[in-house]
Amino acid sequence: MPDKSTNWTELREFRAVDLTESFVLSWGANSGSLQIDLDLFLCPEHAFYERPRPKERACYRPAVLEFPYCSRIVSTVSPGSADAVSTIAAKLSAGKMSGLRLVDDGHYEITGAFGKVEIHAERPILRLREMTT
Known about the structure:
The protein is mainly β and about 130 residues long.
């Protein structure tokens, strides 16, 4: 049976960013949505890209990746768990991302230093956060 999944590089939400160079800072749930705080790697063609300062190796910006109407999360931290989304999100750790894919309609999979996380939710929304000095 052929794999019908879609890699993150083919999803419009992730144009001009590189998730494999991005870092998950924290996981949380709020009002039925899963929110993932990121240090997001911006590619030179991104509208908010700035040339890295001398001691920086790339352009990173604070961002949030939101999965609205998240009904279920399954992770290697709590496989098969029926806990609430907020309970499982609180157990997930930070770390470098290695991938994200759309498995099928409403079913996403994120992998990284934190393991594999399956998310059942609406299409993700990626937003840059305001920079604080």
